[in-house]
Design brief:
Elements: H1 2-19, E1 24-29, E2 33-40, E3 45-52, E4 69-74, E5 80-87, E6 89-95, E7 100-107, E8 116-125, H2 132-139, H3 143-211
Antiparallel strand pairs: 1-8, 2-7, 3-6, 3-8, 4-5, 4-7
C-alpha cells in the first residue's frame, strides 16, 4: 500500500498542477465592452464568477455606483445564460447544450470624466468546474480517495477531449477536401474561360486581316 501511494503521488501532483485555475484580472474603460470566449463541448459543465475591485482602499466603504457593470453570457446561437445589469459581482453555472464558442461580455457605462473599472474574473469548465470540497463533505471520504476520484475524472475528461479533438480534426479535413475540390473546379473553369477568350481574339484578328486582305 505505501508503495502504491508513492507511485500515485507524482501523478496526483501533476493532475493538481494541471487543474489549478487562477482568476484573471483586467481593466475596462467606461463606455467600452470586453468579451471573453471559451470553447465548450456539449454537456460539459461550466462555472464562472466575476467581481469589481473596489477602488477605495477602505474596504468598509461601498463600491461607487459608477463602478457597477453589466455582464451577459451567451451561447454560439446567441441564447442568454446569464445577465447581470448594473451589478458589482455575479456568478453563473450551466451545462453546455451544444458545442461551440460561448461568450462572456462585460460593459461599463459611460462616465465623465472617463474612469477605469478593474474586474476579477474566473471561468472554469469541464473537470475544473466541479466542486471537490462538496464531494468530500457529502461523501465523508478521506483525502486519498478524493485525489483518486479527481484523477479518474481527469483521465476521463482527457479521454473525451481526445475524441472531441479527433472529431474536430475530421471536420477540418472534410472542409479542406471540400475547399480543394472547389478550388480545382474554379481553376478548371478559369482555364476554360482563358482559352475561350484567346480563341475569340484569334478569330477576331483573323477576320480583321482577311477584311484588310492581309491574309
Amino acid at each position: 500500500m505505501p508503495r502504491l501511494i508513492l507511485l500515485l503521488i507524482p501523478t496526483i501532483t501533476l493532475s493538481l498542477l494541471l487543474l489549478l485555475s487562477e482568476s484573471m484580472r483586467f481593466d475596462l474603460r467606461s463606455g467600452s465592452t470586453k468579451c471573453i470566449t471559451e470553447d465548450l463541448k456539449r454537456e460539459s459543465m461550466t462555472v464562472g464568477r466575476y467581481s469589481v475591485i473596489n477602488p477605495i482602499t477602505d474596504q468598509d466603504q461601498p463600491l461607487p455606483q459608477s463602478h457597477h457593470i453589466t455582464a451577459r453570457v451567451t451561447s454560439p446561437r446567441g441564447n442568454s445564460y446569464h445577465y447581470g445589469d448594473t451589478v458589482d459581482s455575479g456568478s453563473f453555472a450551466f451545462t453546455a447544450p451544444e458545442t461551440g464558442d460561448y461568450m462572456v461580455c462585460f460593459w461599463a457605462p459611460s462616465h465623465d470624466p472617463p474612469l477605469i473599472v478593474t474586474i476579477e474574473f474566473e471561468w472554469n469548465a469541464g473537470i475544473d468546474a466541479r466542486n471537490w470540497s462538496n464531494v468530500a463533505r457529502k461523501g465523508h471520504i478521506d483525502l486519498m480517495e478524493i485525489e483518486l476520484k479527481r484523477l479518474y475524472e481527469t483521465v476521463r475528461y482527457i479521454h473525451e477531449e481526445m475524441f472531441y479533438l479527433r472529431e474536430r480534426e475530421e471536420e477540418m479535413q472534410q472542409l479542406n477536401r471540400a475547399t480543394n475540390s472547389k478550388m480545382a473546379t474554379f481553376s478548371f473553369l478559369s482555364i476554360m474561360v482563358c482559352l475561350g477568350v484567346v480563341a475569340l481574339q484569334m478569330w477576331h484578328l483573323k477576320a480583321f486581316f482577311e477584311r484588310k486582305k492581309l491574309l
